[in-house]
Amino acid sequence: MKTTRHNKILELINKYPITTQEELIEYLRADGYDVTQSTVSRDIKQLRLTKTLLPDGKYRYQASPSADKGAKNNFSSIFGSSVISAENAMNIVVVKTFSGMAQAACAALDMMSFDEIVGTLAGEDTIIVVCKDEKTATQCVETFNGYLN
């Protein structure tokens, strides 16, 4: 659960200019994470998030390069241990996971922000990945299969 929450935090701070822990808590709760301020504070410390000055004089949370490396390791761990197979049909990649693991694997995939991916959708044991074209989908399958244990 913590790894999934950490991935969600990294996804949120990359997507929104989050300036306070309270804002981060609101976004997490909106996504179904029941967190307290102390939990978020620990997460920020563990992820080594920093605050960066914006042009308007406000500060926002940002992942340090080591947090990005940790996120890639988390992706590799989550994706590799959750996914059974990946294959493409035209520009769509169908990723089969162990039962109940599609949401976590999909969240990890979304957090990586692959440029080739237009969007994802997760069910119980299947992820649908929409790619820009058939060639890209084939490359995604090769990449995904490289992460499988």
Mean pLDDT: 86
Number of helices: 6
- Parts with pLDDT < 50 across at least 5 consecutive residues: none
Strand numbers in spatial order across the main sheet: 3-4-6-5
- The topology string of helices and strands comes to HHHEEHEEHEEH
Describe the structure in your own words.
- With 149 residues, this protein is an alpha+beta fold.
- It is built from six helices and six strands; from the N terminus they run αααββαββαββα.
- The strands form two sheets. The chain has a four-stranded antiparallel sheet with strand order 3-4-6-5.
- A hairpin with a 3-residue loop joins strand 5 and strand 6.
Short structural description:
By secondary structure, the protein is of the alpha+beta class. The protein has helices at 2-15, 21-30, 37-47, 65-82, 102-111, 134-147; strands at residues 49-53, 59-63, 83-89, 92-97, 117-122, 126-131.
